[in-house]
What we know:
With 185 residues, this protein is an alpha+beta fold. The protein folds into two domains: 4-71, no CATH class; 80-154, DNA Binding (I), subunit A (Orthogonal Bundle), CATH 1.10.30.50. The chain contains six helices and six strands. The strands form two sheets. It has a four-stranded mixed beta sheet. Strands 5-6 form a two-stranded antiparallel sheet. Strand 3 and strand 4 form a beta hairpin. The longest helix has 9 residues, at 29-37.
Amino acid sequence: MTTPENCPALVLNADYRPLSYLPLSLWSWQDTIKAVFLDRVNILSEYDTEVHSPGFRMKLPSVIALKDYVAVERRPAFTRFNVFLRDKFSCQYCGEEHHSHHLTFDHVVPRSKGGKTEWENVVAACSDCNVSKGNKYLHQCGMRLLRDPYIPSAWELQENGRFFPPNYLHDSWRDYLYWDSELES
Length: 185
């Protein structure tokens, strides 16, 4: 039997899109039940697991949608993970795709030469390429970028996140996470 602790709810915005893909917007069963009782969400799908009190029984929601739309931030935070997400977890020098723990980020213009740690100067790089480039300009080491660094939109990061799902996805979530993917026959 599944315990309530193993029953998070996928949270969708009022437009039925996930609030975020990475990290996936999930609420604990306690926060979900509270939102249901405060009439802030619609229940779209449920687990078989129930919670109950002496006079009440309820299946735990597996997918909920907010009743009020929450605007998504337009400019995403500059974080290591968001740089990897913008660059689709691929080294921007060799093009190889890697897990986040095998990626580093590289300053295109080295910090020692005045380069800043900002969206327009940082790219995802594998360790081998980062070491090869070292503290040099690209023309000095004979390397080229596959794509120049830029500030992504929050929407773009969300779209990229759809291609890198977390390890665990409950079956009831799949229709809401990949709404424009081709249907299986």
